[in-house]
Amino acid sequence: MIRHVAIALLALSTCITASARAEPVIVDLSENFVAITAGFTGTEVLLFGTTEGYGEVVVVIEGPKEEISVRRKEKVAGIWINGQQVDFKEAPAFYQVLSTSSLDEWLPLSVREKYQIGVEYLDLQPREEIGAAEAAEYRAALIRNKQRIGHYGQVENRLKTIGGRLFRSSVYFPANVPVGIYEVRTYLVEKGKIVSTRTMPLTINKIGIEADVFRVAHQHSALYGIAAIVIAVMAGLGGNALFRKG
Fold it and tell me: Which string of DSSP letters, residue by residue, matches 97-118?
């Protein structure tokens, strides 16, 4: 990994003179496709880039949109059960922020809100019509749930800077990372204003037998359910027969 990082940064530094004049910020990934196989336990993708030598850099990694349900736990007769459910439409399946230094030091709240930089500024809208205070409560619960499973970052991670112009960071994707097309947005900020933006895609998808099972489960859910029940019954009968023989 260290050797690959050095090669990538060296290659990037050689094109500063020719490219940086045309583009205030240049950014790239060590790979644009992450394959999820049966033995996938998570992976890191190297993000690296360069600037003209001024301003701060912030990177937002956002996964595909999905509908997420949040349920309130209610205690009935001493037992905790699922109560009211609120659905959020088009919430990011994955969300992470990287920056060269703490955002509170140089990025105004109005800019963070406009560009949705930081989990607290995500535009998470409930499908149901509920009060503002209740919506905020469910929104906070959604973020906590996503942070608990590693899909949302709790605070921005730091981009490592080299020589004031090069920057890099490793982005970790856990084993349970959602599949789909991700968007990697890089912002160059100067004096509290975004002066340049770069966007690139990152695809995370299943391959091999994992992809086949995933496709059947989503495209033929009834067939998948029946097959799962049949396999479970057969496994149970087989285990019972072996137990009797023993």
Answer: EEESS-GGGTS-HHHHHHHT-S
CB 58 within 8 A of CB 99: yes
For 204-226, the pLDDT digits (tens) are 999 855 544 544 444 445 554 56
* Residues whose CB falls within 8 Å of the CB of residue 15, separated by 6 or more in sequence, listed in order: 26
Q: Give the Cα separation of 197 and 180 in Å (integer).
A: 22
d(Cα 123, Cα 154) in Å, to the nearest integer?
17
Express each pLDDT in 61-106 by its tens digit. Answer: 999 999 999 998 877 767 777 778 999 989 999 999 999 999 988 9
The closest alpha carbon to 136, from 168, 203, 88, 99, belongs to 88
Asked whether the beta carbons of 14 and 8 are under 8 A apart, the reply is no
Element at 54 (helix H, strand E)? none
CA angle 2, 196, 157 (to 5 degrees): 40
Distance, in Å, from the CA atom of 182 to the CA atom of 201, rounded to the nearest integer, reads 6
Contact, 182 vs 201, CB < 8 A? Answer: yes
Residue type for 141, please? A
Strand order in the sheet with 166-173: 25-29, 43-51, 166-173, 160-162
Tell me the pTM.
Answer: 0.77
Residue 3 in tokens? 């050797």
Residue 178: count other Cβ atoms within 10 Å of its Cβ: 14
Place of tokens 């996938």: 40
Report d(CA 124, CA 69) in Å as an integer.
12
